[in-house]
Amino acid sequence: MKFFRSTPAERPAPKTPQRMSRRSSAMAELSRIFKSEDPLCVLDIGATSASNIRFFTQRGHRIYSQDLLEASTDPELMVKGEQGQTVVDSKKFLEENLAYPNAHFDIVFCWNLADYMDEGLVKPVIGRLWSMMKPGGQLLAFFHTREAGPDAPYFRYHLTEGADLEMHTLNAKRDSRTPVPTKPLTLQRVFNNRHIETLFRDFASIKFFLSRDNIREVLVIR
Question: Which of 8, 26, 44, 58 is at a distance of 20 to 30 A from 145, taking alpha carbons?
Fold first, then answer.
């Protein structure tokens, strides 16, 4: 008689973040230039997306990808301010993370970075992006409305063939049994229209799109 040992059940594979989809009016307008026969130079400063890199390289465009929010949490950037408080060294941050030539980019994707980044970096980053963009270049940014709430999700965005965006949450609450040693990504502030216009005051034009998910989509032209 043969006896068979029972084998331990395999551990379930870790859950991958579920992707959601949203319609983007600003993307519908911006995507018209993706089919350009002239190579575009694109900068994505949100959470790194391999599919976005493939999206542009397969079309013959160049894309640079930098996760500026992650880079902004580097402890080496923290210095003492004039009043003894701890602040981020914005000059060092820009030297280390946005060292690109002036008038280099046709398109910049900011996504919802400004709502989550340290306040001392937001204006310097936008100013640096202005100088790095070509005249007529376009920048896409998302801003939460006051109805979003303090627990508003921070997303990684993925481009598709049309105007829809695929996205998955990077600051969702995780299972306590499988902790991940990452800092929580929390909404730092909410910009109103006037604040956004002031932030992009050096740009040639700005256009707002209000969506149903408590997000203002902003498309600005350099």
Answer: 44
Alpha-carbon gap, residue 187 to 177, rounded angstroms: 25
* Sign of the torsion formed by the C-alpha atoms of 189, 209, 132 and 54: positive
Position 48 in a domain: yes
* 149 lies in some domain: yes
Write down the number of H helices and E strands in the chain: 7, 11
Longest dimension (CA), the chain: 84
CA 60 to chain centre: 23
Q: How far apart are CA 60 and CA 57, in angstroms?
A: 5
pTM equals 0.85
Residue 172: band (very low, low, confident or very high) from pLDDT cuts 50, 70, 90? low
Q: What is the extent of the structural domain holding 85?
A: 20-171+184-221
Mapping DSSP onto H, E and C, the string for 150-175 reads CCCCCEEEEECCCCEEEEEECCCCCC
**Mean pLDDT (the chain, rounded):** 86
Q: Give the CATH number, domain containing residue 43.
A: 3.40.50.150
